[in-house]
Amino acid sequence: MTDQRIALLERALKREKSARKEAEKILEEKSLELYELNQKLKIANNTSSSASQEHLKANGVYSSLADAYLKMDLAGNALEMNDAAIELFGYNIQNESLNIVNLIYRDDFTYAMNSYKELVKNGAFTDYVARVYTKEGPYKLVHINANLIYNDKQEAIAAEGIIRDITEEQRARVLIEEQRAELSTIVNSSPFGIVLTENGIIIKSNKAFQDMMGFSANELQHIDPMEFILPKDVNKIQEIQNQMNSGEKNRIDFTQDIKTKKGQLIKVRVNITTIFDDLGKPKYRLSILENITEEARRSELIEEQREQLEIIFENSPLGIVLSDNGSLTKVNSALVSLLGYSQEELQALSFEDITHQDDLFASKDVMQKIQNGEQDTVILKKRYIKKDGTVISAKSSLSVVRDHSGRVKYHLVIIEDISEQEKAEQQKENLLRRLEKSNHELQEYAHVVSHDLKSPLRSISALVSWIKEDCSDIMHDSGHENLNLIEMTVEKMENLINGILTYSAIERAEDDEKVVSIDETIDNILALLYIPDHIKVKVNKPLPSIYADATRIQQLFQNLIGNAINYIDKEVGLVEIDYKDAGKYWVYSIKDNGVGIAEEYHEKIFGIFQSLTTDPKKGSTGIGLSIVKKIVEQYDGEIYLESEEGIGTTFFIKLKK
To answer: Whole-prediction pTM value?
Structure first.
């Protein structure tokens, strides 16, 4: 509740009180005068003959009147005026003639003529109020009581009246009404509840208070205000009442919880002012109530958030600093532990004092950009000097807090010790370098071993061929079978060496990624593979293309299709290639009606050197599915299968679109 609002209400009350006192004074004076006039008018009415008038005049009754007396003929010509009438109208009939009709305010002429007819008809009128012109100034508002004068034959020969100037009296009344209207407007339009009490009884309340409490104006006038107070606060309110009743305080402000009609609790800010009567005794109490329930809730929320922030500030594992112009205004416990200083010691230092000398220039450059408004948030690496002189490396996150005008109010700096992290990163870099060197050496070794292994295999293969040619006539059937077995073993050994080289080269080979047509890839594979007459390979529908390395995709599908053909044991074999849309992925499938795979081997078959057959005629090296899995995973994909022994197997390859 603002002091301006309260002052405005108090000024309005003072103005109304002042105007009321002034009006009461005027009315009191005029009432006395009116009483005297009425007494004299009674005398005049009882002696309204011309002879009696002369008697009154001779005795100075009219000349002594405080109000104006005027006598006129029936044509309106003034015949007699006392001093008060001369002063009121500005005319003196001793020096100039005056017709009363000329004094009638033009807008009141019809009303005046009707009143004159009433006078002629009834012989008198009272409480005639009209506006009249004066000689020197503006019109005046007058109150007139008049009667006719008769001769001895009871014929009307003139009229007389007592005229009272009520201009100031009317102005006072208007002023009171204006002040009352002004006060009523302020009270009724006020957003604050306003209550006027007398002897603890509510005699007036505004709409804002009625809406606030949920009661009508009539209901409030029959309720003890103490019913709004919680039992725990009764003593507090009684103490406030005692202070005001004793005159110790004439005005008091406090906050209070009160109950509404619905039983809801609201918090209000209350201002109570005592209004005194003319004798200086307390008469009324004016209470102004502002509903601050929401404001109080916001304050509680702000306080709760402040406490939470303080908890976060103090318990954060990161060092936090509130800085003003480089000084460490406020620091948390984590920074104290990090740098080894006490809070008091840190608050006596600046950022420059704890920054490594080699990082000072960069720090000043950042601060200058912030001051210029170029940046409000900055993250930089810098080194700090601990109390014991050791240096730590830290990541500093600096944020600017500005006031409503955009000026920098303070800086919030969060400091994270990354010394161990940097050591770990350095170790990681060293490890990666060693790993890269090791991989390079391993690749060279694989090629050397491959060459060294393939060379004797080729020699064995050549020797077997020569033996078969030279000794075919003298060799028994068992000898031929043994030589054939040697050739198959040599071939398997060579395939195994090639598979190992392929597997080891997958991650090292550079990608040549482009849009790969899977349909074309399948066509190329089917042209290369040997497909027995009893087996049919069917592509159910056109397959979608993907973005990848064409050679690797061909390796992937060739291994899977080759395995499907190789392990069909039915008289009529069928390999089906299909796909389905899985949102961000294509899921390709290769289905066969071969021997099937037991569930216990569904994961094992993707390991290197894992094969489900020992039949040399199948030519399995145990590396093919390992190569497939490695390629799929390189493209963040997935490979899995469904199989039933004796029925067949379906491999699913999930690749990104």
So the answer is: 0.43
